Task: structure prediction
Amino acid sequence: MRSVIETPGNVDGDTTGGGTTGGGPVRRRMPAEWEPHRRTWMAFPPPNATFGPADSPGLAEARAVWATVATTISRYEPVILIARPGADADAARRLVAPTSRSANGSRSRDGDARGHAGPGAVTVVEHPLDDAWVRDTGPTFTVDLSPAPADARPSRGAAPSEDIRPSEDIRPSEGDRRTSSGTLGAVDWTFNGWGAQEWASWTADSRLATAIAELAGAAVRSSALTNEGGGIAVDGAGTVLLTETVQRDPQRNPGWDRARIETELHAQLGTSRAVWLPRGLARDYDRFGTRGHVDVVAAFVRPGLVAVHRQPDPAHPDHATSRELAALLRASRDAAGRPFEVVEIMAPSVTEVDGGPAGYSYLNYYVANGVVVAGVFADPHDSDALDLLGRLYPSRRIEPVDARVIFAHGGGVHCITQQQPSC
Result:
């Protein structure tokens, strides 16, 4: 059996490090997903090769599910939904009504002029899009604990480009940019359509991370690493999980060895230990897959505790993979030197979808303020998975959302959301 690869980053044990400025090191961290959020970002499915042409049943079905996720989250924290200008944005507003607030400044629920609305607000913002997987095309937010790096591009609340149509509702306040806890930062990873896949387009999406970060008031910094948010998982305390088939994909980062990848990740995220998993689930290597994103197979519940996918059927290709991943994680330690405690979440009972091995997973859930939004599959195992998530997150409500349509297009609930931390 292949042994886990654990690599310490900063030898002094500092888990907040990474990057430099003209005045010295920048201390930063990517908060864990369960830490408080300012808001959630999403993107509305456009007509494309993934979802189908305009007015197609497939596109309509996807949009309805995306809207359900947005309105579910909006009961707990504000949501900003990016949509293509014009007809797409109009469709988005209709689907999230009556919780929506539009880019012309109107709104249907209470909230102040800077978009600090409480739960129950979905703001639709117009911007060009190629796809709707904002976990991957949006920024990775961090908290910078010292002055912004010299190469960061600070936002001053203005429109980030001629393409975006922000409203006064979402322009950042000084509180969005800096509090006593630090300054909001954002990584704009290099994005190339999940390894330049033949069906993918990313002209617009390659600019989306910077646009979102600037609307959020974050100091934006570019990374040369081709990476997606679904390809990493952090515990907020110095540890990052990733997979060999994503960051080391020759179609993503040709010529990058493990050491160079880790150096860049630690610098951008403030992590100090990388734990490499060999691969993701089998279905993630199909046409619309990501080639092994970690957020379908494993998730941190808290520092030291990792949930992992379990496929019990020996005939399923993920059976051996899930056993290997669980064993590797149990053999691993986090940035604090603790051995991981591992809890396995059983896969749905269905083993075949559309003529191939089912890739459904309960691990691709999203943790927001006071809630866990969990994908379900009209499956006998749904209730057990929801009960287990309730025990893992006892202070949060568990909100199930039918995720079959999302998985049919190549992802899950986590893949279509991106948290902006409160800092």
